[in-house]
Specification:
Low-confidence stretches: 1-21
Mean pLDDT: 86
Strand content: 25-35%
Helix content: 10-25%
Radius of gyration: 29 Å
Number of strands: 38
Number of helices: 12
Strand order of the largest sheet: 29-28-27-24-23-20-33
CATH topology of the largest domain: TIM Barrel
Shape: globular
Distance between the termini: 50 Å
């Protein structure tokens, strides 16, 4: 078993550019795309024709049903639909109790369920018509595809669909020695973007229209000082959001326009590559929203993705010079408010480790309980405004839907209300009394690290029973929840931690440079700490680890397989049980909601006996005087038909 506990003006400009890093040149006839070289064998403009004005659609499509005014796919046989969820029908002899099919306390089962997507406003088209962007159009002829009122010729096999063109791109190969470090080093930097061909700089201008206030970017003959200067905020390794001094984004929008964006997101997110040309680094940008390459027509100075009148991109360039500056407005972010020499965090790998250790944390708890109970993410590709936004998106206005959080919080009152606003003001959360708001944003962890935290153990956490309750009582959980299966949840959370490590690396200038390092052994942990970084160990704390709850089917072989899988995921610590008894061990007793969960998970409530005169234990409540009044939970209790009784218990 493996489980035991990666010119003048020109000369002055060149002096300010990121240093060149040379790699393999592309073969003759191939275009340098950074990490790859490709050759377009043929570029064909598509044929088009009009198909008339679109009309407003009307009913649910074939195979869908109208439920509460919205269209959903029909449920499969044996299931009935309620909004976005298909619920299993109970067999003969079982009573339908909402979440369960019930006969008695020892003979019941959870209803099977699956999501059927978000309901859509009735909008089916009549026969011979097809739906596109909210309207019905005549179907296109064979060999054509419709986009709005235009039918575009389909690309032939072996050709790539590039919007208005079909491109043959059969010859592509990867460079063997591509060096991405000049791209990674752009992180948190400030740069002007210059055309290598004519020396003009990218600058904002008023192009007219209503989208993005009618603003756009183009290359102009202006001084370096008067050019727009962009802050490069990493969104992932080799990907950036570029913001100017006013906080506006170099962005794109449909159908294929470059604009001055107002929001973070995929249309303001650019995959960036580096090539060597003219003895310098030049950078290429591909928009992640449209998957199109940014180009500059140096005869018109316009930015574009593709030009129907210039299909071969004459007089254009797709790589740019970046000129370092120092006056950008930083991207909005949480600050650590810590100053000092970070070299003081480094040490000798052979000397004792001194500092703090947090041996029990739940960084990825935002993904457990279906991913719809714990609000706040430890990181988000598009920044803090997305990671720590208003929790009403999950918990409802004033936390009215935060049922489990209110029940298990300091007040124990399901009617508790609080201010849900998040970053930057945080009027209420996070605080130590709340169980459903995350305190593990990566900048907060960085602050702790700078303050002396050397080691952190983060447990991947899940509880299948409470997840299913949460997924039922909170409407926010009805659409797109994570799996409640414990092992599925553990796999997802391990994946998120690796993504988090990559994200922090991206902020710090490349792989291995971030403070947050996942480790799998003591020798590696000591080296990480000696490097001045924080060693992070993954553990597991779940009630049904290895899917080995009281009602699950598990044996030595399945547990052995599960242990090996966890080891391969990089997990080095396990709590064999958590909230409820399972086939591996018993759980710590708890009252209220957790006692309900114990009953649902095991078929019995927590069992007690009277303590001796010299000892004392937890006080258990007869029945469920508070929890039993909560809608849905009351239905579950009524279905169980039993109420726990304890000696010397608090009265009802």
């Amino acid at each position: 078993m493996k489980f035991i506990l990666k010119m003048f003006a020109v000369l002055s400009v060149l002096a300010l550019m990121p240093s060149a890093s040379y790699s393999e040149e592309c073969a003759s006839g191939y275009e340098d795309d950074g990490p790859t070289c490709h050759q377009y064998l043929q570029i064909d403009a598509k044929n088009t024709y009009g198909r008339g004005v679109g009309t407003i659609p009307g009913n649910c499509p074939l195979g869908q049903e109208n439920n509460a005014g919205l269209c959903y796919p029909q449920c499969k046989s044996g299931f009935s639909g309620a909004g976005p969820i298909c619920w299993q029908n109970c067999s003969s002899g079982y009573n339908d109790h909402g979440l369960t099919c019930f006969q008695h306390i020892f003979k019941w089962h959870w209803k099977g369920s699956y999501g059927r997507g978000v309901g859509k406003i009735p909008g089916a088209c009549s026969v011979g018509k097809e739906y596109d962007a909210g309207l019905c159009y005549s179907a296109c002829e064979s060999g054509f595809d419709g986009v709005g009122p235009v039918c575009w010729e389909s690309c032939k096999p072996g050709f790539i669909d590039d919007g208005a063109f079909c491109r043959a791109n059969d010859n592509t190969y990867a460079k063997e020695d591509y060096d991405a470090s000049p791209v990674y080093n752009l992180a948190q930097g400030c740069y002007a973007i210059q055309s290598p061909t004519n020396g003009n700089y990218l600058k904002k201008y008023n192009k007219g229209g209503v989208i993005d206030n009618g603003l756009g970017y183009r290359f102009e003959s202006v001084s370096l000082e008067n050019a727009d200067h962009f802050f490069f905020k990493p969104s992932a390794l080799g990907n950036f959001m570029l913001t100017d001094k006013a906080g506006r984004y170099l962005a794109s929008h449909l159908p294929a326009e470059i604009s001055v964006g107002r929001y973070a997101g995929k249309f303001a997110d650019w995959k960036t590559a580096v090539i060597q040309a003219g003895g310098e680094n030049r950078f290429k940008f591909t928009g992640n929203g449209l998957n199109l390459k940014l180009r500059h027509n140096h005869s018109t100075n316009n930015l574009y993705f593709f030009d129907l009148l210039n299909p071969k991109n004459a007089n254009s360039e797709d790589s740019f010079r970046l000129v370092e500056q120092s006056d950008c407005a930083p991207f909005p972010e949480v600050t650590t408010n810590v100053s000092g020499d970070t070299n003081a965090l480094k040490g000798d790998v052979n000397e004792p480790v001194r500092g703090a250790a947090d041996i029990h944390a739940h960084i990825t708890a935002n993904e457990f309980m279906g991913g719809k109970m714990m609000h706040g993410k430890p990181f988000h590709r598009w920044g803090v405004s997305q990671a720590l936004n208003d929790s009403k998106v999950v918990h409802g206005t004033e936390g009215a839907l935060d049922i489990i959080g209110n029940l298990m919080g300091e007040t124990g009152d399901v009617n508790n209300r609080y201010k849900t606003e998040g970053w930057p003001n945080f009027p209420w959360w996070p605080n130590r009394t709340l169980n459903t708001h995350s305190g593990f944003y990566y900048k907060w962890l960085e602050r702790a690290h700078l303050g002396g935290m050397r080691l952190l153990v983060t447990d991947l956490v899940e509880n299948e029973v409470l997840c299913k309750i949460q997924s039922t009582v909170n409407p926010a959980s009805w659409i797109g929840p994570n799996s409640c299966n414990v092992m599925d949840s553990i796999r997802l959370q391990a994946k998120r931690l690796n993504e988090m490590q990559d994200y922090i690396d991206a902020q710090s200038g490349g792989p291995g440079k971030g403070f947050f390092r996942l480790v799998t052994g003591p020798k590696q942990a000591r080296q990480v700490i000696a490097n001045g970084q924080m060693a992070v160990i993954m553990g597991v704390e779940a009630s049904e680890t290895f899917n080995c709850g009281k009602k699950d089917q598990c044996d030595t072989a399945s547990i052995e397989k599960g242990l090996n899988e966890l080891y391969d995921l990089g997990i080095r610590s396990i709590f064999p049980t958590h909230r409820f008894d399972n086939k591996l061990s018993g759980a710590h007793m708890a009252d209220g909601l957790l006692n309900i969960g114990q009953g649902l998970s095991t078929g019995h409530f927590f069992e007690t006996q009277t303590c001796e005169s010299t000892t004392s234990g937890i006080s258990m409540t007869n029945g469920f005087p508070l929890v039993g009044k909560v809608p849905v939970l009351k239905d579950i209790l009524d279905g169980l038909g039993l109420s726990p009784t304890y000696e010397r218990a608090h009265p009802k």
